[in-house]
């Protein structure tokens, strides 16, 4: 992704509930068509005029809905939008089939350029954390603050729980995984996913479990489901092996925006020990560790993440006022 790429304009922004995308209370779901890609964007109704903009980027296999709980809590402080990355949620695959970290970062940059909302308070979880880091490093003009929740920054060796994700990136992995899980019910698949992502999956309500299972079933039926998942997993693996200025840790060193880092003590995908390396690497960082949280703290502990972000925002605003 180059900081010299020309801005692109949105071709269309139209409501898409007829396509089946669910908008929660106080949410609107839009489709934004850009050259080479079409993105689904979930927005909260603004509770006041003139709120600073925020953009939320989900992780591997996730969607914009992963941020609904946190956006609801922050709606009186920032103007919230979350996107479905290409090939995830309700966004179709990118025309060029590029699911690399750089490809996803370009989607974020082009959305921000087309909307004219930057600089934004940028949030990222897991894969979205790697994407957000790359955006903040390459385009500091588009990022006001950066909040990273269990970002997928290179970790060698990776957490044992992350090995299946790395395996997905290998050639032929899709065939092996689909064959091994052919007889699994959607409920079993959902339980496996929640056990991987949550520190305590037992806290997920029956209603929330049913919603997760319904979304999982819908995604499995998409013809590009496995392609988007495996190619994005391969993008994470490739990013782990890059050296020089393209290495994600080198990118993190270049980030100028005040940064909030959130790590879970029960994270099975990103080792909690990586929190301290991240805190040393980002120039202007504050660290929040949640001993009981897993990989998706914004879903598991949205109140705590909300408070930490408000503190970051207050500190940033105070610094700007002076």
Summary, kept brief:
The protein is built from twelve helices and nine strands. With 322 residues, the protein is of the alpha/beta class. The chain is globular, with a radius of gyration of 18 Å.
Which key features would you list for this structure?
single chain, 322 residues, alpha/beta, nine-stranded mixed beta sheet
3D structure, described in words:
The protein has 322 residues and is of the alpha/beta class. 41% of the residues lie in helices and 17% in strands. The protein has twelve helices and nine strands. The protein has a nine-stranded mixed beta sheet, with helices on both faces. Strand 6, helix 3 and strand 7 form a beta-alpha-beta unit. The longest helix is centred in the C-terminal third of the chain and has 20 residues, at 302-321. The radius of gyration is 18 Å and the shape is globular.
Write the layout of secondary structure elements.
Blueprint lengths: L11 E4 L11 E8 L2 E8 L8 E5 L10 H7 L4 E6 L16 H15 L4 E6 L1 H12 L4 E7 L13 H6 L4 H8 L5 H12 L8 H15 L4 H17 L6 H7 L4 E6 L9 H8 L3 E6 L6 H4 L1 H20 L1
Parallel strand pairs: 4-5, 4-6, 6-7, 7-8, 8-9
Antiparallel strand pairs: 1-2, 2-3, 3-5
